[in-house]
Amino acid sequence: MTGIDSDAIRELAKLLDETGLTEIEINEDGRAIRVSRAAAAPAAYVPPPPAPIAAVPALEPIPADEPGTVSSPMVGTAYLASGPGETNFVKIGDVVTQGQTLLIIEAMKVMNPIEAPSSGVVRQIFVEDAQPVEFGEALVALT
After folding, report:
1. Cα(66)–Cα(46) distance, integer angstroms
2. Is residue 111 classed exposed, middle or buried when 0-12, 13-18 and 19+ CB atoms within 10 A define those classes?
3. Residue 113, pLDDT above cutoff 80
4. End-to-end CA distance of the chain
5. Is residue 116 a contact partner of residue 99, using CB atoms and an 8 Å limit?
6. Exposed, middle or buried: residue 68 (CB in 10 Å: 0-12, 13-18, 19+)?
7. Which domains does the chain have, with CATH numbers?
8. Is 60 exceeded by the pLDDT of residue 59?
9. At a CB cut-off of 8 Å and minimum separation 6, what does 121 contact?
10. Among 28, 32, 52, 54, which has the minimal tally of Cβ within 10 Å of its Cβ?
11. 69 in Cβ contact with 141 (< 8 Å)
12. Structure confidence at residue 40 as a pLDDT band (50, 70, 90)
């Protein structure tokens, strides 16, 4: 095992245990060491079949840059419900309170709730269930 620093690998593994991280990498003098722990993979999320769209009074479309628009804080996959077959967190016309979950974004196998920054009414949902989203992409408009 020429060139492999076993002590460095042990130290990095110890850091993984201490910090709860699943992966760590260091680069020194042109050499890189990465230690990764295989996490138990959660059951694959299978989005529910599309629900029939209920008649909702027509609202004027809201531009994605309108005040009250909640944007994605990360890159990931947006889910409108907590799991397959579950009801969506919110729908157009719902009254929400500050801190209420609007949707979740899965990023690196972690489900991140996206909460309402203020109380209001859901005027528009810009994403569909299981849709990939980018950082800064409009998710929901509140008024």
Report:
1. 32
2. middle
3. yes
4. 63
5. yes
6. middle
7. 6-36 (no CATH), 69-142 (2.40.50.100)
8. no
9. 93, 94, 95, 96, 142, 143
10. 52
11. yes
12. low
